[in-house]
Amino acid sequence: MPEAAEEDAEEEMPLSMRLSIADTLTLGNATCGFMAVYFTTTGILIPHLTGSDETGMARNSAATAVILMLCAAVFDLFDGLVARKLRSSPMGAELDNLSDLISFGLAPAYFVLVYGMVADNTVHQRVAAVGAIVVLLAVVLRLARFSCVTVKDGTFQGMPSPFGALTVVSIVLLELPFVATLLAIIGTAWLMVSRVEYPKPRGRLAVAMLSWIVLSMGLLAAWAFDAPGGQLLLQTGCALQLVLGAVIPLFATARKVNNFRDNRREARAAQLP
C-alpha cells in the first residue's frame, strides 16, 4: 500500500470511531441493561441461594432492575430523536442493536430466568429457563430482521423490543399463576417476531410514551418502598401494560382486515362495466 494511502487510512479511522451525542445515549442504554442484570443477581438471586429472608431487599432490587430497564427505554427513545436532529456516527446503528440486545433481550430474559429459579419447584425452574430463552431469541430475531427488512415509514414490524421487555417484566411482577405467566411471556415473544405493525413513537406518541415510563417509575418506587397501596398501584400499572400490549395488535389487525376488504371492494368495482 502506498504511503499516501496509509496516511489517509490513519486519518479516516479516528473519524469513524468518534462517538456522537446519540451514540453516548445508546451506550447509556447498554449500561442500564447491564446494571439491571446486576441488581437482579445481587438483590434477588444471591439472597435466595444463600437463604436470606429479606423480602424488602428483593423487592427493592426487583424495582431497581425494572426502573433501569425503563431508563434504557428512555435512552433508546432519545438516541433516535437526537440522531435524526443532529447526526450519528457510522457505527450508530450497530451500537443501537447491541445495546437493545442487552437491555431488552438479556435483561428481561434473565429476569424471567431468576423468577423461575426462586420458585421452589424444579419443573417451574426448567420451564422458566425455556421461557427466558424464547424471550432472548425473539429479541435477537427481531433486531436482526429490523436491520435487513424495510417497512413503511412510521411503523415497526412486530412489537418493539423495549415495549416487549417492559411487557415481559410486567407479566412477572403481576405474580399470576405459573402457567398463565409462561403463556403470556411466550405470547409477548411471538408478538415481537410477528408482522403486526406498531406505530413509531414520534411527536405526541413519543411524549405519551415518556409520560407512561415516568408514571411506571413512580409506581415501582412506591412498591419498592412499601408505600400504602403500593402493591395495588404496581399491579394496576402492570395490568395496563398488558392490556396495552394486547390492544395495539388487535387494532392493527382490525385495520389491516378493513383495508383488505376495502381493496377488494375497489377491485370488484373497477371490474364492473
Automatic annotation (TrEMBL):
Span-the-membrane segments of this chain are: 27-50, 62-81, 101-119, 126-144, 164-193, 205-225, 231-254
Establish whether keyword Repeat is in the entry.
no
The protein's name in its UniProt record: CDP-diacylglycerol--serine O-phosphatidyltransferase
* Main localization (coarse): membrane
Query: Known Pfam families for this protein?
Result: CDP-OH_P_transf
Q: Reaction(s) catalyzed by this protein?
A: a CDP-1,2-diacyl-sn-glycerol + L-serine = a 1,2-diacyl-sn-glycero-3-phospho-L-serine + CMP + H(+)
Q: Tell where it localizes.
A: Endomembrane system; Membrane
> Which family is this protein grouped under?
Belongs to the CDP-alcohol phosphatidyltransferase class-I family.
Keyword terms:
Lipid biosynthesis, Lipid metabolism, Membrane, Phospholipid biosynthesis, Phospholipid metabolism, Transferase, Transmembrane, Transmembrane helix
Annotated organism of origin: Streptomyces boluensis
GO terms of biological process kind = phospholipid biosynthetic process
Name the Gene3D superfamilies for this protein: 1.20.120.1760
Q: Mind listing the GO molecular function terms for this protein?
A: CDP-diacylglycerol-serine O-phosphatidyltransferase activity
Q: What is its EC number?
A: 2.7.8.8
InterPro entries xrefs? CDP-diaglyc--ser_O-PTrfase (IPR004533), CDP-OH_P_trans (IPR000462), CDP-OH_PTrfase_TM_dom (IPR043130), CDP_ALCOHOL_P_TRANSF_CS (IPR048254)
Q: Name one GO cellular component term.
A: endomembrane system
Give the bilayer topology.
Multi-pass membrane protein
